[in-house]
Design a protein that fits this description.
The protein has about 180 residues and is α+β, with helices and mostly antiparallel strands. The chain folds into three domains: about 1-30; about 40-130, 2-Layer Sandwich (Alpha-Beta Plaits); about 140-180. The chain has five helices and four strands; from the N terminus they run ααβαββαβα. The chain has helices spanning about 1-10, 10-30, 55-70, 105-115, 150-165; strands at about 40-50, 80-85, 90-95, 130-135. A four-stranded antiparallel sheet has the order 2-3-1-4. The longest helix is centred in the N-terminal third of the chain and has 21 residues, at about 10-30.
């Protein structure tokens, strides 16, 4: 170790060249490297959400959640499938096993096709909303509108609530779902 230190003490030009090389390399990486403030991170999960207005949690479980879980349980690549049914809403999360993460796009397409192939959902149920969960998907704000008002009044209220955020700089996307058009 002493010889190593002694070498660098005696060879100051070599030390200066190494420091210069590190500074140049660091500068190149800084200026030419890809930079993102909030990079997209894929979580290898797919969320399936289905609205069934007016249905009890038990009806949602039996008529929607169980059917979706059965349809997607046959697919390769599942690490975990978890479903939840509450009044008027079914959510199913399909977590992709890390061994299959390279095939995520194919698994997503197969999953979407399997859910789309289910033909016997209740007539009043909305079409399932399917999306992969990644950092671009997270909602910053979610607003739920419910209460003892008519469906048309809820739709009008949703339109009013949607107007102001659209005017704000930095608002990337506003989605309304869960009501008939």
């Amino acid at each position: 170790m002493k010889k190593f230190i002694k070498f660098f003490i005696n060879q100051s030009k070599v030390v200066n060249l190494i420091v210069l090389a590190v500074i140049v390399a660091g500068s190149l990486v800084f200026w030419r490297g890809q930079k993102e403030g909030f990079p997209q991170i894929k979580l290898n999960m797919v969320w399936i959400s289905t609205v069934y207005p007016g249905a009890t949690a038990e009806e949602v479980e039996k008529l929607i959640t169980d059917k979706i879980e059965d349809a997607i349980s046959k697919l390769d690549g599942a690490k975990k499938i978890s479903g939840r049914s509450i009044e008027g809403l079914s959510t199913v999360i399909f977590e992709v096993d890390s061994d299959y993460s390279k095939d995520f796009d194919k698994i997503y397409a197969d999953l979407k096709n399997s859910v789309d192939a289910i033909q016997d959902f209740p007539e009043d149920a909305m079409d399932p909303y399917i999306f992969d969960i990644n950092t671009d998907t997270f909602h910053v704000i979610s607003v739920f509108i419910s209460g003892d008002i008519t469906e048309n009044q809820r739709r009008d209220l949703a339109k009013k609530v949607e107007e102001d955020p659209k005017k704000l700089k930095g608002v990337g996307k506003i989605e309304k779902w869960g009501y008939r058009k």
